[in-house]
Structures are given as C-alpha cells and as structure tokens.
C-alpha cells in the first residue's frame, strides 16, 4: 500500500501507453506529450517503485519481465476506472458498444440485426467498424469482433468458428468451371486484406499460383460484389456470402472437387468485467447462437 501511494497516477497512464506501444515516441503522440516528458515520467515511476520497467536501446524500448507483469495489472486497473467514470456519469440506460471488422459487419452481422433488435428492444446497440483493434481503455467499447489473430492483451479472447474459404462466382461463370484447372482461364478477384489469399488456395490444391489476378480490392465486401456482377471468381469465406448463396447470386463451382481452406477467421475479444453485464451477456449469447446456425455440414 505504501509503495502504491508513492506512485503518481499520471505516470501509470504514461507507462500503459509506452508499454502497450513499446515506444516512447508513440506514447508521447497518443498522450499529447513530448518524448522527453514520457521518458521522465517512466524514470520517475521506476525510481518510485524500485523496478526497471523497460530495457532501453538506441532506437527501441522493450518491457522487462517485471514490466510486462505490471502492465497487465495497470491496464485492468485503468480500464476499471474508465468504466466506473462512464457508469457514474451516464444518465439512463448504458448503450452496448460493439467494434467489429468491416466485412463481418456488412456481410454477416447487419443482415441479422433485425432478429436481435426484435428480441431485445430494451438494449441500445452502437456499432463501429474498422480494421483497427478496439482499445477498451480509451474507446469504451464493450466487445470487439476481430478478424484474424487478436493481439496480446489482458482481455478475454474467444475463437468464434471455423470458416471455409472456397472459390465463388456467378452461376453463368460457374458453368465454365468444372475443375480447378479451369480457374487459369478466368479473372481471379483478390481481397488484399485476407490472411489467406489465392496463393494459399492454389498451394493447398498442389497447383501453380497465377502471376496475375485481374482485380484486387482492399475490402472483401467489394470483391464479393464484383463476383456477383460476374466480373470473376473470388476466394471468400462462405460465412460472408450466405445471402448470395441462398438467393443463387453466387455458387461454389469447385466445392467437392477441390480442397477448401478451413481456419478460424474471427475472434471475440472483450474486457473481463462489464459496465452493462446483462446487455453484454444477452448479445454474446445471441451472437454465438447465430454463428452456430452458420456452421456448414461437418464443421466443428
């Protein structure tokens, strides 16, 4: 207790930013301080605690083992204080704030929201979509649906489901594609943001990867739209094209005659404590139930 009383709260905020980014410069930019002020605050904290928190090199800083240990506790403490202030200053019901990967939002979540809103009309839901990670300590989000592997953090992380990546195209184009080799004669639509791209699919099928694709997008949703319009073949998760498959706008011409890619595409990340626990648990339960309904035959 005596040690904690000697530690300035402001230095803990500086330590959290510097430890999370492993950069005094980035921490300074984030907190609107000078780099020398950040360095001074860290040194003051080290003197007050008697701990060496960072290993300093000419160009970089890295957390020591004790620094890594302390960072997790500091992050949880600051998050709890932030949520406490939010609860104390909010009048009325607290909205549930969700951050999500963009394609997950547009292609899967939004088309299903009517069912959640209808079943839970008392929950105010606020949704933001970007490729960034949610920073719960600053942005006050309640949960984050992350594409790919989440970054290390003290928060809960849950893999959502195994997704299937397979070639998809409009029915008219599918009539010309009966074997994997037929793909060489068609435009392949590349989604640059995918963790598994055409190169991985061709490797999984023991085929040579084409040197050119024809079309590339930085959002999967644009690649899906291009495939619906007959512009080529897109490699995409069937999770995101359930509507297009059910209406016949897209088909899987090589399912059953080629190797699909199966991987955990998304994770649910959230703090260990919640400012609105009832709304959080109801949304999480609904989300997992909807995803269970999206599982394909034989998927775990």
TrEMBL record:
Coiled-coil ranges (or none): none
Keywords: DNA-binding, Transcription, Transcription regulation
InterPro entries: LysR-type_TF_proteobact-type (IPR058163), LysR_HTH_N (IPR000847), LysR_subst-bd (IPR005119), WH-like_DNA-bd_sf (IPR036388), WH_DNA-bd_sf (IPR036390)
HTH lysR-type domain segment(s): 7-64
A GO term for molecular function: DNA-binding transcription factor activity
Biological processes annotated in GO: DNA-templated transcription
Family: Belongs to the LysR transcriptional regulatory family.
Protein name: LysR family transcriptional regulator
Source organism of this protein record: Pseudomonas poae
């Amino acid at each position: 207790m005596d040690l904690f009383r000697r530690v300035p709260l402001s230095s803990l905020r500086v330590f959290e930013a510097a430890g999370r980014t492993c950069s005094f410069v980035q921490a300074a930019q984030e907190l609107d301080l000078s780099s020398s002020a950040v360095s001074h605050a860290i040194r003051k904290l080290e003197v007050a605690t008697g701990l060496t928190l960072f290993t300093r090199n000419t160009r970089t800083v890295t957390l020591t083992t004790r620094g890594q240990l302390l960072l997790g506790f500091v992050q949880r403490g600051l998050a709890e204080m932030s949520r406490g202030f939010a609860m104390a200053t909010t009048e009325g019901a607290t909205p549930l704030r969700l951050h999500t990967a963009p394609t997950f939002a547009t292609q899967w979540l939004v088309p299903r929201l009517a069912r959640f809103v209808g079943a839970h009309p008392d929950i105010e839901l606020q949704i933001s979509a970007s490729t960034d990670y949610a920073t719960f300590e600053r942005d006050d989000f309640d949960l984050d649906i992350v594409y790919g592997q989440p970054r290390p953090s003290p928060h809960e992380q849950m893999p959502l489901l195994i997704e299937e990546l397979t070639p998809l195209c409009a029915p008219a184009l599918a009539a010309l594609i009966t074997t994997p080799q037929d793909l060489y004669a068609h435009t392949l639509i590349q989604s640059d943001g995918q963790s598994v791209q055409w190169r991985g699919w061709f490797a999984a099928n023991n085929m040579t990867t084409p040197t050119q694709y024809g079309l590339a997008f930085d959002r999967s949703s644009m690649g899906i739209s291009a495939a619906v319009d007959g512009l080529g073949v897109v490699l995409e998760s069937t999770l995101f094209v359930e509507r297009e498959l059910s209406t016949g706008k897209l088909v899987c011409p090589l399912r059953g005659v080629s190797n699909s890619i199966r991987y955990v595409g998304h994770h649910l990340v959230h703090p260990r404590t919640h400012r609105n626990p009832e709304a959080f648990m109801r949304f999480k339960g609904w989300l997992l139930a909807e995803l269970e309904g999206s599982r394909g035959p034989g998927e775990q």
